[in-house]
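Team,

Forwarding the record for the chain on the shared tracking sheet. I've put the sequence and predicted structure together so nobody has to dig through attachments.
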Amino acid sequence: MSRQCGQIVSRVVAEAKAKAEAEGRAKAEAERKVIAVSVRKERDEVEVRVEDSGPGVAASLAEHIFDPFFTTREPGEGMGMGLAISHRIITEHGGTIECAESELGGAAFTVRMPIG
């Protein structure tokens, strides 16, 4: 389970990094992109939040973000399986993952997993 949790965080951070890099290239911005990871224990669950200052997730795409083979990347840059696999693993262990707007301006993914 701990190995899978590490894979989930790695996948979500990789998604944030890819979106931030793509956005930076598209706009040729010199500004610094931010990816923030926080972990906290609340009652009998642990919460991991990954948020970024990238372009965020459009509301029209949010309902499909965890679907297998769904991607917003250019062809050849991703298969659209990272978040789908993460979602499957999380729900198999009784947890949840959600995507929302980040206070940093981009997307925020929050994973909640039961402890024990």
